[in-house]
Every structure is written in C-alpha cells, then in structure tokens.
Amino acid sequence: MSATEGRQGQGPTDIRAYRSIQLWIDTVDNMYHLSEAEWEGRLQLVQQFCEAEGKDPDEIIAEARSDRAEKIDYMRHLKRFVKTLTPNPMLAHDYENVVRSFFINNGARVVTKPYPDVYNRTE
Amino acid sequence: MEFLEAVGKRRSVRWFKTWEPVPMEKVQRILEVVRMTTCPGNLQPWRVVVVERDKLDSKVRDQLLACDNWQGAHTQAPVWIYFYADPEGARPEVFANRTKELVGVGALPAAFGWSSQAIDNAIFQGESMPAGMPAINELLHGLPYETSANVAYAETVGACAVATLAAVNEGLGACLHMIAAPSKQEEVKRLLGVPAHFVPVWQLLIGYPAEDPDAGGMRPRLPFEQTFSYQQWGEPFPRDQQVVAELEAEGLPQPTGEPKPHRFDELRYLARMFGYPV
Fold first, then answer.
1. Disulfide-capable partner of B198 in A1, B84, B111, B223 (CB 3.0 to 4.6 Å)?
2. What is the pTM of this model?
3. Closest Cα of chain B to A92: distance in Å?
4. Which helix (H) or strand (E) holds B266?
5. Which residues of A fall within a CB distance of 8 Å from B75?
6. What does the angle CA B219 – CA B220 – CA B225 come to, to the nearest 5 degrees?
7. Minimal CA separation from A77 to chain B, in Å
8. How many whole angstroms separate alpha carbon B33 and alpha carbon B21?
9. Do B53 and A32 touch (CB under 8 A)?
10. pLDDT means per 10 residues in chain B (278 residues)?
11. Residues paired with residue B84 on neighbouring β-strands, in sequence order
C-alpha cells in the first residue's frame, strides 16, 4: 500500500473545506497534478493527524506558523503519529512526508530529510 | 568541452546520484583548475577542504549536514568541497611578495613603472605611485584586517565560479551552497579543523546528476539591457541579435522563462525516489 492510496477510514469530504487544505491542494496541483486517488489518501492521512491533535487543519497551520517560543513542535508529534500507523520505517517516512507537504505548502517551517540510506551509506 | 558549452550547460544541480562516487582524479582536476584561477595580485587566498561524504565518520557527517539544515543537495552529493578565504593571504606583506614575484617573472612590466622598490615604497611607506601605475599605496598601505578579509573573500568567490565550470567540464553536476547556516559556521570549522580566522565562502557540491543535467532548462536572467551599460550608466549596451544567435549556435542557450516540459513530473519522481515530500 502506498502512502497516499487505499488507506482505510473515514472519507476526507469535509476536510477539503478548510482554507489550509485548499491552499495545499492548489499549490501542489499547480506543479504536480496528482490524481484524485492520491489526494484521497493524502487527505485521509492529514485528517487522521488533525484528529490525533484534536485540532482542525487551519488551527494547526496557524500554530505551526506562529512566532511564539512555546509553539507546538508538530514535527515531533508527527513522528509519534506515524509510528501508530505502521512499524515500517520507510512507510512511516512516506506518511510523514504527506503531512510535511501539507505544512510546507502552507508556509510552515519544516526540515525535510530523504530516506536515511540516501546519505547514510557507511553504517 | 568548449568554454561556451560549459557555461551554457552549467546548471545548479540539486539532485545527485548519491550511489555513484566521484573519482578523486576528477576532483583533483577541478582543484588543479582552481589553482590557475585569475586573481588580482596573484594572492590565491582560497583554502579548500575536500570531503567525501561516505568516508566521513557518520556522526561528523550528520553534524555537517545538520549545520546546513539538511539541505537536499547536500545530503545527496557524494563530494563536498568547502571553500574558505584566508585574510592572512591578503595582507600587505603578501601583496608585496606576490607582486614582486610578478615583476620577477615579467608579468608586471618595468615599462609601466613596476619595480620591487616601487612596490615596497607604496605598500609600506604609503608613497604615491606614478602615473601609469595602480594606486596600490591607497589600497594597501595600512590596510585594515577587515579589508584583507573582504579581498580574500572576493577572490575566493571567483575561484568558486571557476571550480563550478571545471566540474561541469568533468561531466559532473555542481551546486554552490552556503557552507552552513551563519550561526553554525564556527561549528563546521571545528568539525573540519579549519583555522578560526578563515572566512567561510561557499561549498561546492559535486556528483553525477540524478536529474536531467539540464535541470529544467536555462534559469531566468535579468534583461541584457538592464545589466550592461555602454559608455555611461543607464545607456544600454547595444545588443546585436546576430551575436546572440551565433552564441546560441555555439552552445550558449538563451533563457525561455519557462521550465522544460515535464520538469515538475521529473521533480515529483525524484522526490519520491529519494524520500522527500511532494
């Protein structure tokens, strides 16, 4: 199963109404033209992350972009979240990237890394 | 590779075949070219550290990558060439020694007024240079250390540009990067054992491109007329389209302002291959 297709759970119909979700879809599709099936999987994943955080997508983006010193470290939360979805580290990385894409395309600061074996060749 | 072809084909490559090492012979060829780079006063103030990513201690590698915010091209490139400028290499006494060398090899002609004595008088006594000579007394007599650092930095930037073209000439992809976030430059110096007074300039990332070497096509450029003046500032240099066409035929393409077809598909698949978000 890929990171973005065929995941089980509630459909993402409502989540598309959020401004941050619209911006994400518009920005990514403007460049990459993802299929509807891929979006379904992506939206489902972000919705699950939002539910785990107990916040809606716009609230999460607003907090992630805030200047407060005590702002929430969503990337740390994300790492914990994907571990609840799969024990497979590569798949977890893919899941993280979906949510990272949501953050990045909403202007939130996110450090990205490739799969570890891209640079981690001496271990 | 011809000069115009190297300039025309050069792109900042940001996706590397992380699995394909760069032969050290190619790296040496780049360094040998850098050694010949033009430099006022023949100062050669650049100091370079070549790092093979896969031969680094894994902890040091991760620290260096973290100092550069885990930039994508940095993690992928198999070879990192760190360029530093040594302000000590641009101090007045070095200028004096190097320019005297240039007099000795016949580069700076006595016909223009160059002599070892004239150089010493200008640099160390502040004596003005006669007509026909550069006013090195004004530039170098009592030269502040910060100016030496600026001179060394400027000359090293030029060396970086030549190194980049030399890498293209070797069939490699190359990208000039910040060495590190400004707040992490000292940490990189410590990790590489670089003297504290060296000024960080750029790092040249090299490797075989994982993306099309054309990397989406020629990047947008400022209009020619906006950049180049003739006789006085603001009078555009007259641009002959015939010359433009000739250069294009010789390997110097013109920017289209648009990415090449399928560029974003390429980026999408590259991101997936390496594990980056899209």
1. B84
2. 0.90
3. 11
4. helix B263-274
5. 113-114, 118-119
6. 135
7. 17
8. 21
9. no
10. 93 96 98 96 97 96 96 97 98 97 95 94 93 91 96 97 98 97 97 98 98 93 96 97 96 91 95 96
11. B47, B200
